[in-house]
Amino acid sequence: MERNYSSTPELKACDTVVDYGTLGRQVVVHAKMAEGYVQAESTDPLLVNINSRMMGAFIDETRQHIKELEPYQSELLDEYCSNALPKTLKDQKPRNVSWTDWLGRLSSDEKHVEFLKWHVNYIEHQQVDPEVQGEIYRGKQLYKSQVADAIKSGWLHEDAHQAIDKVDDVPVYIGDVFDTLMQERTAYYWGGRLSKIVIAGQIDPGLKQWNEGNVINNISWVLKHELNHAVLGNLGDRWLNEAVTEHIAQALSYDGKPEVIDPSERGKRLEIGRFYTEERELLAAVMQNGQENEVPAQLATLAYSAGQSSPCASYPDFHYAVDKLWSDHEVFGGKDSIVNAVSARAWLLERAYLWQGLSRRNAEVNSVNQTLDDFKNSPQDIAKLFGKYLGEFTLV
């Protein structure tokens, strides 16, 4: 179904359903307050002045954010504005000016706020869309059922029953392009007291369901992964945690082959979205020593899903099994915690790639690919890290 998110004749302020990460949310809140002051019969001038100053500060903040966009982010902004903005707002920008320059430097505050009102309203329309909310609800119910089946099958820990009880309480928001796609992520989980899942909304309102980038499609692809982060488990090191998180998300799907970690052996039909492929390839290499010997995938998924009451209760079993698998290797033999040494190598390479100016996700992918290459062809580069950095990387 085509969603007419862009035809919003009333440019209204947001309410509490809009995620705080939405660019311009605070500007719109204060703009609404300013409108209320104008309509009120009597208003304290001090309140008007404070609100005006705060609104001005937030406008400066959003302009600065837009001015600092990287080239690929500016391209996304152009795509977003070209596809979603109403014609009345498009026509405000001179043709020879980019959207980054217009919104970051050249537009008046009035025009800037008008764009932000539309932008926040665009996200709000997606957030409250009954079909979007229905997809989130159905996804959560399916997730609970599939986790329960996985516990019965023995590849998720009994502690995962506690995760099932938490699913319905996890807030799920639709995120804007600035907070999701421009950060090279279709979704993310934010932990802590204000925990939430944020899933990218669509930047082209004309996309139909099952088109890449459609908001319903985004939810169906990534909700299981983010719920794993939110309620099921955490293995600490980024590459390892994402590899097992995504493996479980894929395996929870129908006929998902929980025993097969290597994405190249799973088949395209089973790979929904194909996220974190590089991390899963590295994990498969670490858990395999030749074709006949390997650490069962169940040890990784049990380690991940154990410890709702006692964190990482099964983690030592996973580490020990990997070390034992490689005990006869000419370089790794007799060494403790191959997993931690691999993690140290990936972490150091990621820092180096970030220092070179690569984007976050490109740095992650390159570091994992280089670590995988080292693991297969230059294991001595990883072996040098045994005994180093382990205090920083050891979780048990």
Question: How would you summarize the topology of this molecule?
Answer:
Blueprint: H1 25-39, H2 45-67, H3 71-84, H4 87-90, H5 99-106, H6 109-128, H7 130-153, H8 160-166, E1 172-175, E2 187-190, E3 196-200, H9 215-232, H10 238-252, H11 277-286, E4 288-289, E5 293-294, H12 297-305, H13 315-325, H14 338-355, H15 360-377, H16 379-383, H17 390-393
Parallel strand pairs: 1-3
Antiparallel strand pairs: 2-3, 4-5
Helix pairs in contact: 1-2, 1-6, 2-5, 7-8, 7-9, 9-10, 10-11, 11-15, 12-13, 14-15
Describe it for me?
- By secondary structure, this protein is mainly alpha-helical.
- It has 3 domains: 25-127, no CATH class; 129-232, no CATH class; 234-396, no CATH class.
- Helices cover 56% and strands 4% of the residues.
- The protein has 17 helices and 5 strands.
- The strands form 2 sheets. Strands 1-3-2 form a 3-stranded mixed sheet. A two-stranded antiparallel sheet has the order 4-5.
- Strand 2 (187-190) and strand 3 form a beta hairpin.
- Helix 2 packs antiparallel against helix 5 (99-106).
- The longest helix has 24 residues, at 130-153.
* Total tally of structural domains: 3
Summed up, the helix count is 17
Largest beta-sheet characterization: 3 strands, mixed
- Which structural class best describes the helix and strand composition? mainly alpha
Number of separate strands: 5
Using the alpha-carbon principal axes, give the shape: elongated
| Overall radius of gyration | 24 Å
- Give the terminus-to-terminus CA distance: 49 Å
Q: List the uncertain runs.
A: 1-16, 389-396
Q: Which percent bin holds the helix content?
A: 55-70%
Secondary-structure element pattern, one letter each: HHHHHHHHEEEHHHEEHHHHHH
Strand arrangement in the largest pleated sheet: 1-3-2
Task: Give the strand content.
Answer: under 5%
- Oligomer state equals single chain
Mean pLDDT: 85
